[in-house]
Amino acid sequence: MIKRKTGILFVISAPSGAGKSTLCKRLLSEVSGIEFSVSFTTRAPRSGEVHGRDYFFITREEFMAMVNRGDFLEYAEVHGNLYGTSKSFVEEKLRKGMDLILDIDVQGAKQVFSKMKECVGIFIFPPSIEELRKRLIKRGTDPEDVIEKRLKAARWEIAQSHMYHYWILNDDLEEAYQQLKGVVLAERAKRERMELTWNI
Amino acid sequence: MIKRKTGILFVISAPSGAGKSTLCKRLLSEVSGIEFSVSFTTRAPRSGEVHGRDYFFITREEFMAMVNRGDFLEYAEVHGNLYGTSKSFVEEKLRKGMDLILDIDVQGAKQVFSKMKECVGIFIFPPSIEELRKRLIKRGTDPEDVIEKRLKAARWEIAQSHMYHYWILNDDLEEAYQQLKGVVLAERAKRERMELTWNI
Prior knowledge:
By secondary structure, chain A is α/β, with parallel strands linked by helices. Chain A has one domain: P-loop containing nucleotide triphosphate hydrolases (Rossmann fold, 3-Layer(aba) Sandwich), CATH 3.40.50.300. In chain A, 42% of the residues lie in helices and 24% in strands. Chain A is built from seven helices and eleven strands. A five-stranded parallel β-sheet of chain A has the order 3-8-2-9-10, sandwiched between helices. In chain A, strands 5-4-7-6 form a four-stranded mixed β-sheet. In chain A, a hairpin with a 2-residue loop joins strand 6 and strand 7 (81-86). The longest helix of chain A has 16 residues, at 144-159. Chain A is globular. The model of chain A has no long low-confidence stretch (mean pLDDT 95). Chain A binds chain B through residues 1-2, 123, 125-130, 155, 158, 161-162, 164-169, 178-179, 181-191, 194, 196, 199-200, and chain B through 1-2, 125-130, 155, 158, 161-162, 164-169, 178-179, 181-191, 194, 196, 199-200.
């Protein structure tokens, strides 16, 4: 009687340590019809990485040809390697009715928002900067100056959060997860994403 | 770090037999911070009904005075009794941060939508008119001609469903419930309903 027209692109960002990866992994394991978007990159595959599942591994020439064709929703250079999200890859998935998660930083999200008006932005907040500091110290992977750099970045990222459609506070992990799942299910139920298919 | 500004008014409608009551009751028992809106009525209280919990029981004179003051978001006369939703009751609850469910027919919803721009409309669909017919026959409370009248009303109500923000198909009860809960949690997480309260 009613059915969805296409898949939805969810763009999810958060300061480092806010718990985004945990939340996204659980979402993908519990909710069907949603996948991670697969990025294109010029870096070499690491052991165990599969072309087309983890990344599409391409040469710098191929990457630049895609840039010139305007195929990237967003791209960036990180430590000398190029990473990008292909518009045609995303659109093909959405056309088939698959929802996608784009786990991406604030800079990349800005590019995507300007090119895909119908995408859904979700920003995940840590409970506080103080709590974020504690989490990063507890994680034990970063020296103190790197932690301070991450906190400075977090403040800047939070100041950009107005670009996103939804704000989720990851204070209680279970509550934050229920909200994230709720956003996905609610967006699927939006009238403008559906059509009436009478079968009386 | 972030907090919601006010409560949200959810306006929920469905054709008779679509399962709205079951879904709403479960929602209220499992999700905190949301209540049924309490209507005003001129009919006499039935045994066990409590003033202020089930209804606000008032006289026809009091009701008409509220109508004249423009206090009703919607009102209607049913079998000689007046029923209405008070705007000041709703606004006071929302101001305190409570979310409200208004379980109401399509005619009433139309009045509410025109007066409360920030409310959220949810329409619940039965799987099909044929399935609705089966459910109404199985329920065994209505004679055949009443069932046909309800089905005719259902077709008309479904044709009005474009007024609502969300469409939920109640084909599988568990899935429909997860979607309804999802809409409530997602609406709470919408950026425009939140404010940043820095505590760095």
